[in-house]
Structure formats: structure tokens, C-alpha cells
Specification:
Largest sheet of chain B: 3 strands, antiparallel
Shape of chain A: globular
Helix content of chain A: 55-70%
Number of strands of chain A: 7
Distance between the termini of chain A: 40 Å
Number of helices of chain A: 25
Structural class of chain A: mainly alpha
Helix content of chain B: 55-70%
Strand order of the largest sheet of chain A: 1-2-3
Strand content of chain A: 5-15%
Shape of chain B: elongated
Largest sheet of chain A: 3 strands, mixed
Oligomer: heterodimer
Strand order of the largest sheet of chain B: 3-4-5
Distance between the termini of chain B: 103 Å
Radius of gyration of chain B: 37 Å
Number of strands of chain B: 5
Strand content of chain B: 5-15%
Chain lengths: 571, 712
């Protein structure tokens, strides 16, 4: 195993960005190879991280012992006098909750880089920004210090803004600004909670060191930590010795909240007459639900997708949306499991609503890319529904859905890109009978459509099945959401079949017909580069549909640790 | 108490697994390889299926007498829940294996001629392989989740085969309709999976059945208690979920087996090539629903079974009515298939497990035979089409008198038709009779409002015979109508019998439709089929269970049997006689048949438009959904996104206001301040004149003022 593996994974693309930056303009044709190379290395390292991951490690999500490949270094700290001290760490690590998403990000970024080969203007800027985006996305998935996480989370907006705003379609400025501002609103909600949390949470190990209970980190056995926690809770440690922290793992443990702090479990902090913890939970939830996106915060998504260049759409749908789901798991649910239970009904309802609402919208779209964008809204609804269930099956399903949707939606957007490259038009009504003109393209899009509508044999089916059974079981096991929710949610499957098959019938079947005669020449079947992007995705989608154990064996223990945390808080 | 993990533990290695893998791998191989074998694809695919049939027969001979061999292994785990896969080779699976592979081989063989001139025939044979693979999955797996997986794959291959001629808009619309109608049923299937999983945490049928026996009803709650990983699990659901589970799973069968109200896809599915209709939409895929009900039969409770019976009876009757006014020969057969599937479902509903499955097998033979015979006719008529001669070779209006031209086809069609009509001597008689008998007994026991089921079931016998003989009279007797309709066609080559590729499968299926195949008897219970497969006992808690037919006194069956036989033969013969008087050559309806347009009169209309169900779905429900979707999209774009844009615009306007405020008010205030300061400065500057006397005067004045303020 390589030391500091995760750090290499995060910063290899950044290194690539620097190389691109310093290469002279005359070497324009090499930029894409640098990007591909850097992301190739990242992919290899990520696969290495997955293979070196020890699946047998158990533990609650709030224990640092269950983390693997941890890199932790002191970043900076500030003395606050009698208020103690606050410290920020460079802290990255993986457990079953983010491992799959790290792998997904590496895969999708790599394939996105291949698809970016078609970019012809301002290549230096494009590939530089793309690599920058890669670093912030990868960092976001493995950062375990809230400050660091937030930094990566926010930093993502910058390259994304320019990638859409410069290389996008006709309404790119509008879409870029909308995306930027909308996400920023979510970020502010998250920032507010982050500040509240930092005021309430301390790091027991560092506090112990500061107070002189222990000498160095290696002495911090679980026993010692619980002694320190007891001492803090009972006020035995001077307040100036308390080290406040942004550690996301500490934040998930009630014992790490200062007595009488604003967001502590037994605090009386209130906002608008509601428990402060509930409000903080809602703020995090909304912040990440914008990213996910869930109804009613999704309207930025269709615009961003339609205007973004293909590779950016792929990254957006394939990975960026998953940060929303991951954020809800890692922050909102982990920090405030009691609030999560309190609002489970609401979350489940919005999940259900997103499923149906997104699907109905997709049914009415005339633009192929918009249709797929809305189908993403529908599929991300499953993530919310699965999480709201708070059962092992539901949460596993939610994570699996994110992983699977990452692969499937990437493939879908790549395929739309194939068509757009040839005709610069995405209108569903402008095509007919493409199957006879582009048979191979039709086969692949049929595979992608069926995978997306949840046909067994493809990864999406396993994910949705787990969400369904987990959500239904919820009422029996924990009582988070009622029985009817998953039953009604199955309607999403019919609507999904409806909009995809209708599109197939309108665009691909029937007699060949296109709106513009000139397209008859430009519409040629897939080329080698397109196969290189698409075939691996097909293989992965089928592999994870037939043999889910590949992923589930890695994440089972962590998901159990997570649901255990939720259940403990309810009891 | 039982530990779940013991029930679903991995079985010891059994070499049988190789045969199972081979059975599924061979058709899959056909699917993956035919694309690359343009010319020899048909022969290759047929050969592969031939191997599969041999394996099936071999397995059947090996495991004929065993009680069932199961093989189980782990698939994946979610948390501490192990999901498994399992196969069960029992008599039912063996019979289905042989039937499916047998018909599949025949259809492959038939297609070698039927699709000879189609340029995409390699794709066609590949898809047949995909279908066979999926269908065998349903048969071999003994795990509801896997059955569901292959169930959907069957739906996929059906979609691809119905839409095989995708350039025809009607074909791709029909394919969509089939898939979506099946999907609607599958929502029920998934719901059933959810309910069973939340109780038992397994999809393995062995596990589900063992734990269902142990479950109980306590205070109207359905309680399942068992150990899992050594820990006691006690899951409880409202008792109604027990019925709901059965009904929900049955919904899946409603979709796949084309039952009311989802049956509308099957007639449209006739857009696919005719051999496909024979294999998928008559003999196998549509029977998968019945097979699935058989697999879950013992966990259905009384209420669910009532629903099954009612749906089956309604379907049988409705479709039979629709069959008697169609012009398209395949449409007649499609409605007839729906109707016969209704019989099978009805049988399951009344608890006549064996009778239902028996009808499945006999129907597979005679209906595939009918479809292939019809396919031969269509194929041979198609040969007559030419540059100036365009007609629909499926339309019975162009047929007539074909007996003279195609005697072998006529005989095969006739035998299968007699089986369909349920006349003695043919297989359909035995199985249909068994269903009617069991239904009659069940209703005698059940009583109440269920008599209408019996009425529908017997009425269907009459109508079935009627539409069957109407078809025979119109197709095979009288004069050939095509030359009269299109005189140009008379100059072309004459209509001929099909070649051996078309004949052989037809003949074999016709032989399979003779009752002698199943035993030299008039009673279903004396056939070998009944020796192999018996009605199982219901496993659900007693207060919810239906009564087992076998617990009823045997005399009831004895006494009713002769009545049922007499009535059903009488009804079938009446149907024949009515058809004879209406459609014999020169009779009232057949004389003007060639010029006939859509039927007149209420009954005719209802029949022709299948109770207006399509109209309801397409013109009302589908339109409503699309309209609703557009409304929602409008809401999303205009209201929701509009709101966001409004906020953004409001922000901008507000920012301008602030800017104005800043420029004019705040900055104005600054200007005012500086101006005032300046003025005051100028004012005070004039005071500071350097005149010492003036300063003293001012100081004095200030002092006096201070003193006044202090003193008073």
C-alpha cells in the first residue's frame, strides 16, 4: 500500500492542471493528453485504494477507528483566549460511505476527459479548469474535516462556472450564473451550520493533549477518550483548554458536543421556536438537496445540463449530484440522527415527490438532454427515499443508486453528446428512425435507456430494488416512513419506461427521417473514440447489475455502522 | 425454531448445476453469436436449441421420479442479510423445460423458412435465443427475485421481437404498449417482493414457504417469528398485507399473462413475426404468469385466490367475445389466447393447481400449432403479393377455400382448433374439462355471489367453439376470395402448400394436441400429467387460508363430472352449429364477408373493439397522463423556475434600488455633510479672526451662560 494514497489521488489532477498551465500555447495538442494522463493516474490510484480497502473493519460512523487510508495533518489553529482554541486539520480518509463514490468519481472524470477530446477552443483553459474541478470533486468525497470539505465543496463552483459559461451552449451565461448562485445559496446554509457546529464541537484527543491528560495522539485509546469526554461534559476541564474542531467524525458523536452548546443533543438552543438541532439539520438538508437536486430545488439542473458541454454534463450528472447525497449522509444524517428521524417522513415524501415529479417532467420534454436531466431528478429521488427509510437496505440502496446512476447518466449524456456533435440539435421531434441509419448507436442508447429505466441485469435495478425493500421494511423495523411511500414510488418505474420507450419510438424507430437534409451526411455511426468511452461503461453497468457483491461487500460494514448510529439515536 | 440461514444455506455441490448452466448458456450463446454469423445464423441457432431440447429431455428422464432437487448459493449480502440464488428441478420445471424447448426448436425450425428473405434474420434468431434464455430462467430459478429478473428480461425480449420490424410505426408502438402494460403489472410484483421481504428477509421460495407455514395471525396482525443469524426476529404486519402480498404478486401475472385489465397489449403484439407470436405470445411467455402463480400458489390466501378467480373468469369471457368478430386471423388467435389464459388463471384461483398447469401445457401445444398453421397461410399468401397486388395476408377476408390448396395445413389447423374448442379426443378437452369441473365444485362449496364465475366459464365454452369454427369456415371452406377482390392476383402463381420447414412443426404440434398423448382416457385425472403433479396444500395461517379442493368429498367430483362433460360438449357443439349456419359457404354472413367493413350492432361493436378498453386507455387515460405531464412541465418552467428567476430579478432590481439609495441618499448625505461642514467651516473661520478682544468677549459670554445654567 502506498503512503498518503488519498492525497496523491486528490492532488494528481492539480499537478496536471499546473503542467497544463505552464505548457506553452504551441503545445496545444498535448493538453488533453496531460489531462488524460493525470486522470488515468488518479483512476489507477483509486482502484488501488479500493483494492487495499479492508472490508472487514467494523464500527460506528462516528468512530475514527473504522476509517482507512487516513491522512491527517495539522493545518492551522487559532487561540481564542478563554474561549479555548480552534484547530483545522487536513484530514482525509475513506470508509464504506465514500469509497464507492471516490471510485465513481475517478471513473467518470477519466471518461469525461476522453469525451473532452472534442473540445477545440481555448484548450488550455478548458483542461486546466477540468483538472481543477477534478481535484475539488475528489477532495470533497474524501475530506473529513468540515472546513476542508467546505473548501473543496465551494471551490468546485469556480471551474464549473467557467466550464459552463465559456464552453457551453447558446444560453451558457444564464445557466452558469444560475448554477453558481443557486448552489451558493445552498453553500451558505451549510456554512451557517458549520459555524454553529464549530462552536459546539470539540476534539477530545486534542483537548486531552491541551489539558495535559495525555501526551500525544497515540495514547488516545477509546477508554481515555471517553474519560476526557466525561471530564468535558462534567465541566472538569477549563474552557481555555478546550480545542474546538471541524472534525466531521467527532461531529457525529453526541459526546463531543460541549455541554450547553447551541447544537448539543440536550441543548435548549432554539431558532424560531424550533430545536436548534432540527433547524441545523434542515439547513444542511436543504443545502445538499439543492446539489442533489430534489424537488423543489432542481430547476438549475436542466438549464445547466442543456448548456454545458458534453463532458461537463457527464461530470455534473455523474458525480456532482452525488455530492448532494453524500453530504446528506456524511453530515446531516450523521450529525443529527435524531433530527433525521424526526424529519424522515418529510425527506421520504420529497424523495417520492421528486421521483414522480421528475418523471412526469421528463415525459413532457422535447429536448433529449432536458429529458435526461429530469430523469436524473427522478432517480435522485430514490436516494432520498432510501435514506429516509433509515434501514440497512435503504441506505445501501441510496449509495448504490448514486454509484449506478453515476455510470448510467454518464453514458446517457455521452450518447446525447454523440448526437449533438453530429447535428448540433437535440430536439426529439427532429429525428425519426435513426435505428436504420445508426444501428450501433441505437443499440447502445437502447442499453442505456433500459439500464436507466431499471431493467434487471443492469446496476440501476439492484439499487432501486434495495431502496424499495428498505423503504418498505422501514415501518416494521424503525418506523421512519410509512408503507405506502415505496408502494407509490413504484409508479416511477412505469413513468420511466414511458418516457424512455416513447423517446426510442419517436427518435429511433419508424422510417428514417431528419428535419435537416444536411444531417443525412453528418449522421454517421459511432467512431472509435466513442466506443472507448461507452463500452467500459456498458461493462460496468452490467457487471454491477449482475454481481453487486463487488461493491456491497466493501460497504456493508460501514453502512451497518451508519444505520446503527441512526437506530441508537432513536432509541 | 427455524433459523432462516439454515433454510437458505448453500447446498452441497451437485453436478446437476452444469446442466442448468448449459441450459441457460446455450440460448444466450445463440444471442451473442448470431449477429456475427450472417448466413448460417438460422441453422446455428436451431442447432443450439436442438441441443437444449435434448438436455431437457435427458434431465426429464433422469429426474422424473424425484421429489425435486434444489441447488442454492449466495449471491450478495446487504448488511447481515444474505441474498441467495436457487434452482429447483421438480416435475413442474421439467415439464415446462421440455415444453418451452420443444416449441422453441419448432419455432426456430419454422422460422428458417418464414424469415428466409428477411435481411435482419440474424438479429431475429439472436432475439429468439435471448427470449429462450430468459424464459428458462423463470422456469429454473426458485427464488422470487430471480424469477422477477428473468420475468423482466422476458419482457425485454418480447419488446424487441414485437418491434422487430421497427420501421413500421405500428410495430414499435405495439412493442411499447406490451412493455409498459407488463411494467404496470410488475409494480405489483415489486410490491409483493417488498411485503414478503419485510416479513421474511429472503426472496428464496423455499425460505418464504417455510417461514409462511410458521407465521401466524395474532390480533389481526400477520406475525412472522424466526431466527436469523441466531437472533430472534419478530416481524409483524397488518393481516391485510398477507392478502395484499398475494394480490400484488398476482398483478405481475396479470401483466404477463394478459389478464383483465392489462390484456390490451397482446392483440397488438401480433405486429411481431408470426412464429414469435406462436412462441412468445401463445405458448410460453404469456404462460409464465400462470407458472409464477403456481410457484407462489401455496402462499396465496383465500382473498387473493378469489381475486385471481374473478379476474380469470372475466378475462376468459371478455376475450372470447372479442374474438368472434375480428377480420385478422392473428387477432382471433390472440384474443383466443387471452381467453384461454383466463381459464388457466381461473383454475389457479379456484385452487385447481394441476388443472391450470395441465391447460397451460395442452394450450401451449395447440395454440402454437394454430399460430404456426396461420403463419404458414400468411407466408404462402405473402408469396402472392406482387407489384400490383397488395393486400394484408393476415386478413381473413382475402382467404376462403384454402382447404383445397393447403390440405396439410388444414388438417393441422383443424386438429388444434378442435382442441381449442374442447371437443373429446383432443387435449384441450381434458384440461378444459378439468378446469370446469373444479370450478363447479369450488362454487358449490363457496356459494354466494360466485355463481357468475361459473356462468362466464361455461358461456366462454360456447363462444370459443363459435369463433373457432367461424374462423375455420371463413378460412378453409367456400371459395378463395382473393382473386375476386384483386383480379390481378389470379394471373400470378397459384397458392401452394408450405414446404417441409413449415409443415413439420405444424404436424408435430397437431399430434401434440391429441388427447391420446396424455393417456387413453376421457378424464384428466387419469392422465400421466395428474400422476406427476398434484395440488399442493396452502401454507398460509389457517384463518386466512382457502380450503383445499382435495379436502372436499371425492363424490362431489364424481357426481359433477358427468354433468360438466355433457354440458361443455353440448355448448361446444352448439357453438359449432351456430357457426355453421352463419358462416358455412353461402350462408348469410360468409357470402358478403369479403366486402365487410367494421361490424354493426352493439354486440358486434363491443366485440370488434374489445369492450372499448383500448379506446379508454389511449384516448382517456394516456391522453390525461400526457396532458398532466405537460401541465407539470409548464408549472416547473413557468411557476417554479419563474419564481427562482423572479427572486433573481427582484435581487437585481433591489440592488439597483440600493445603488440608487447609495448614490443619492447615502452619498447625498455624505455630500450634505461635507457641504455643511464646509459651510460651517467658512462660518467659523470668520470668527477666528485673530482679534484677541473678540476672543475674550466670546469667552466671557460663554462663562456667563455657563454660570446661568449652573445656578438655575
Amino acid at each position: 500500500m502506498i503512503e498518503n494514497l488519498l492525497t496523491y489521488i486528490i492532488f494528481t489532477p492539480l499537478l496536471g492542471a499546473l503542467v497544463v498551465l505552464f505548457l506553452p500555447q504551441s503545445k496545444t495538442s498535448s493538453f488533453k493528453w496531460v489531462a488524460l494522463g493525470a486522470l488515468g493516474v488518479t483512476l489507477v490510484l483509486s482502484v488501488l485504494a479500493v483494492t487495499s480497502f479492508d472490508a472487514s473493519v467494523e464500527g460506528l460512523t462516528n468512530s475514527e477507528d473504522q476509517l482507512q487510508l487516513v491522512d491527517k495533518a495539522k493545518w492551522f489553529s487559532v487561540e481564542l483566549g478563554s474561549l479555548g482554541k480552534f484547530s483545522v486539520d487536513y484530514f482525509v480518509g475513506v470508509d464504506g460511505l465514500n469509497l464507492s463514490l471516490l471510485l465513481l468519481a475517478a471513473i467518470v472524470l477519466f471518461i469525461g476527459a476522453i469525451s473532452s477530446f472534442g473540445i477545440k477552443q481555448k484548450q488550455k483553459g478548458y483542461f486546466g479548469l477540468y483538472l481543477l474541478l477534478s481535484t475539488s470533486v475528489l477532495g470533497c468525497f474524501v475530506a473529513l474535516d468540515f472546513f476542508l470539505f467546505y473548501l473543496f465543496f465551494e471551490f468546485m463552483l469556480l471551474p464549473m462556472y467557467f466550464l459552463i459559461g465559456i464552453w457551453g451552449g447558446p444560453r451558457r451565461e444564464y445557466a452558469a450564473i444560475k448554477f453558481f448562485l443557486y448552489t451558493l445559496v445552498g453553500s451558505i446554509l451549510i456554512l451557517i451550520v458549520m459555524i454553529g457546529l464549530y462552536n459546539s464541537v470539540y476534539d477530545p484527543v486534542k483537548t486531552g493533549m491541551e489539558a495535559g491528560v495525555i501526551e500525544n495522539v497515540s495514547e488516545a485509546s477509546p477508554e481515555v477518550i471517553s474519560n476526557i469526554q466525561f471530564a468535558v461534559q462534567s465541566g472538569q476541564i477549563e474552557s481555555e483548554n478546550i480545542v474546538k474542531s471541524f472534525n466531521m467524525i467527532s461531529m457525529a458523536d453526541d459526546a463531543n458536543y460541549l455541554p450547553d452548546s447551541f447544537l448539543g443533543k440536550n441543548s435548549y438552543g432554539e431558532i424560531f421556536g424550533q430545536s436548534a438541532r432540527w433547524m441545523a439539520f434542515l439547513a444542511l438538508l436543504i443545502g445538499f438537496a439543492i446539489k442533489l437536486p430534489a424537488f423543489p430545488f432542481h430547476t438549475w439542473l436542466p438549464d445547466a445540463h442543456v448548456e454545458a458541454p458534453t463532458a461537463v454534463s457527464v461530470v455534473l450528472a455523474g458525480i456532482l449530484l452525488k455530492i448532494g447525497g453524500y453530504g446528506i449522509i456524511r453530515t446531516a444524517f450523521s450529525f443529527f440522527p435524531d433530527s433525521a428521524f424526526h424529519y424522515a417522513w418529510l425527506i421520504g415524501f420529497f424523495g417520492l415527490f421528486s421521483i414522480l415529479y421528475g418523471a412526469m417532467n421528463a415525459l413532457a420534454q422535447k429536448d433529449l438532454k432536458r429529458l435526461i436531466a429530469y430523469s436524473s431528478v427522478s432517480h435522485m429521488g430514490f436516494v432520498l427515499l432510501g435514506l429516509a427509510a433509515m434501514t440497512v437496505e435503504g441506505v445501501t440502496g441510496a449509495i448504490y443508486q448514486m454509484f449506478s446512476h453515476g455510470l448510467i447518466s454518464s453514458m446517457l449524456f455521452l450518447l446525447v453528446g454523440v448526437l449533438y456533435d453530429r447535428t448540433h440539435d437535440r430536439g426529439i421531434e427532429n429525428y425519426g428512425g435513426l435505428a436504420s441509419k445508426m444501428p450501433k448507436f441505437t443499440i447502445l442508447i437502447t442499453i442505456a435507456f433500459f439500464a436507466s429505466l431499471g431493467l434487471p441485469g443492469f446496476s440501476g435495478f439492484i439499487a432501486e430494488l434495495m431502496v424499495f425493500i428498505g423503504a418498505f421494511k422501514s415501518s416494521t423495523v424503525i418506523g421512519a416512513i410509512p408503507y405506502w411511500m415505496p408502494v407509490v414510488a413504484t409508479l416511477g418505474l412505469v413513468l420511466g419506461a414511458g418516457y424512455y420507450l416513447w423517446t426510442l419510438q419517436r427518435m429511433f424507430f419508424g422510417k428514417f427521417w431528419v428535419k435537416d437534409k444536411a444531417w443525412r451526411e453528418t449522421l454517421v455511426d459511432l467512431n472509435a473514440r466513442e466506443y472507448v468511452m461507452l463500452i467500459p461503461l456498458v461493462i460496468l453497468i452490467i457487471w454491477f447489475g449482475i454481481y453487486p457483491a463487488t461493491l456491497l461487500d466493501l460497504i456493508n460494514n460501514s453502512v451497518e455502522g451508519f444505520t446503527q448510529l441512526l437506530i441508537l439515536s432513536v432509541e | 425454531m427455524i433459523d432462516l440461514n439454515d433454510i437458505i444455506s448453500t447446498t452441497e455441490f451437485n453436478p446437476l448445476i452444469y446442466w442448468i448452466i448449459a441450459l441457460m448458456a446455450i440460448p444466450l450463446l445463440s444471442f451473442f453469436t448470431t449477429t456475427f454469423l450472417k448466413k448460417i445464423a438460422p441453422v446455428w441457432a436451431t442447432l443450439l436449441l436442438g441441443i437444449n431440447l435434448s438436455i431437457s429431455i435427458y434431465l426429464a428422464s433422469q429426474y422424473w421420479d424425484t421429489t425435486g432437487v434444489s441447488i442454492r448459493g449466495n449471491w450478495f449480502s446487504i448488511g447481515d442479510t444474505q441474498l441467495t440464488y436457487s434452482f429447483l428441478i421438480d416435475q413442474l420445471a421439467l415439464i415446462m423445460l421440455v415444453v418451452v424447448n420443444f416449441i422453441s426448436v419448432l419455432v426456430h425450425f419454422f422460422s428458417m423458412e418464414y424469415m428466409r428473405h428477411d435481411e435482419n434474420k440474424s438479429r431475429y434468431f439472436g432475439l429468439l435465443g435471448l427470449f429462450t434464455f430468459s424464459m428458462l430462467g423463470i422456469i429454473l430459478f426458485y427464488d422470487l427475485l430471480f424469477i422477477f429478473i428473468f420475468w423482466e428480461l422476458v419482457g425485454l425480449s418480447s419488446f424487441l421481437l414485437i418491434g422487430f420490424w421497427f420501421e413500421k410505426k405500428s410495430a414499435s408502438l405495439a412493442a411499447n404498449k406490451a412493455f409498459i402494460m407488463n411494467r404496470i403489472g410488475d409494480l405489483g410484483f415489486i410490491t409483493g417482493l417488498m411485503i414478503l421481504y419485510s416479513q421474511f428477509q429472503t426472496f428464496d421460495l423455499e425460505g418464504i414457504k417455510s417461514l409462511t407455514v410458521l407465521s401466524s395471525i395474532e390480533d389481526e396482525n400477520w406475525v412472522a417469528e424466526y431466527f436469523k443469524n441466531g437472533e430472534l426476529v419478530r416481524n409483524s404486519l397488518d393481516g391485510r398485507w398477507l392478502s395484499a402480498a398475494g394480490i400484488a404478486l398476482f398483478c405481475g401475472a396479470v401483466g404477463k399473462s394478459a389478464q383483465f385489465p392489462l390484456q390490451v397489449w397482446l392483440p397488438d403484439a401480433m405486429e411481431g413475426p408470426t412464429p414469435v407470436s406462436a412462441l412468445i405470445h401463445a405458448a410460453t411467455m404469456v404462460a409464465a404468469g400462470v407458472f409464477m402463480i403456481a410457484r407462489i400458489f401455496v402462499i396465496l390466501d383465500a382473498q387473493a385466490l378469489e381475486v385471481v378467480a374473478v379476474v380469470g373468469a372475466i378475462t376468459a369471457f371478455m376475450a372470447a367475445v372479442a374474438a368472434f368478430s375480428q377480420f385478422d386471423i392473428k387477432k382471433v388467435l390472440a384474443y383466443s389466447t387471452i381467453s384461454q389464459l383466463g381459464y388457466m388463471v381461473l383454475a389457479m384461483g379456484v385452487g385447481a393447481y394441476t388443472a391450470g398447469l395441465f391447460h397451460l401445457v395442452t394450450h401451449a401445444m395447440f395454440k402454437a400449432g394454430l399460430f404456426l398453421s396461420a403463419g404458414t397461410i400468411i407466408h404462402q399468401l405473402h408469396q402472392l403479393e406482387g407489384k400490383d397486388v397488395n393486400f394484408d395476408p393476415q386478413d381473413m377476408r382475402v382467404m376462403g377455400g384454402l382447404r383445397k390448396y393447403m390440405p396439410v395445413t388444414f388438417i393441422c389447423f383443424m386438429i388444434c382448433a378442435l382442441a381449442l374448442a374442447g371437443l373429446p379426443g383432443f387435449s384441450g378437452f381434458l384440461s378444459k374439462d378439468a378446469i370446469l369441473l373444479n370450478t363447479a365444485v369450488w362454487i358449490d362449496e363457496k356459494g354466494g355471489g360466485f355463481y357468475f364465475i361459473e356462468v362466464l366459464a361455461f358461456a366462454t365454452v360456447l363462444i370459443t367453439a363459435f369463433y373457432t369454427f367461424r374462423m375455420i369456415f371463413l378460412v378453409f371452406t367456400g371459395d378463395f376470395r382473393l382473386p375476386k377482390l384483386i383480379p390481378a392476383s389470379a394471373t400470378l402463381k397459384p397458392l401452394q402448400e408450405g414446404n417441409v420447414f413449415l409443415k413439420l412443426p405444424m404436424v408435430l404440434l397437431a399430434i401434440g394436441s391429441l388427447s391420446i398423448i396424455f393417456g387413453f382416457t376421457m378424464k384428466a385425472e387419469n392422465t400421466w400429467f395428474y400422476q406427476l403433479i398434484q395440488d399442493p396444500i396452502f401454507l398460509v395461517p389457517e384463518s386466512y387460508a382457502a380450503f383445499n379442493l382435495m379436502d372436499l368429498p371425492h363424490e362431489w367430483f364424481e357426481n359433477l363430472h358427468s354433468q360438466v362433460v355433457v354440458i361443455s360438449i353440448g355448448l361446444a357443439l352448439s357453438g359449432l352449429v351456430i357457426a355453421y349456419f352463419l358462416f358455412k359457404p353461402g350462408a348469410k354472413f360468409s357470402a358478403s364477408f369479403a366486402e365487410k367493413r367494421e361490424p354493426i350492432g352493439l354486440v358486434g361493436q363491443i366485440s370488434f373493439y374489445h369492450w372499448y378498453q383500448n379506446a379508454l386507455y389511449e384516448k382517456v387515460i394516456l391522453k390525461f397522463i400526457i396532458w398532466k405531464a405537460r401541465r407539470i412541465a409548464w408549472f416547473d418552467r413557468v411557476i417554479l423556475d419563474g419564481f427562482i428567476n423572479f427572486i433573481a430579478k427582484f435581487q437585481v432590481v433591489f440592488a439597483h434600488l440600493i445603488a440608487w439609495f447609495d448614490r443619492n441618499i447615502i452619498d447625498g448625505f455624505v455630500h450634505l455633510t461635507t457641504y455643511t461642514t464646509g459651510r460651517v467651516g467658512q462660518l467659523t473661520r470668520s470668527v477666528q479672526s485673530g482679534n484677541v478682544q473678540a476672543y475674550i468677549m466670546a469667552a466671557l459670554a460663554f462663562l456667563i451662560l455657563m454660570l446661568i445654567w449652573l445656578l438655575f
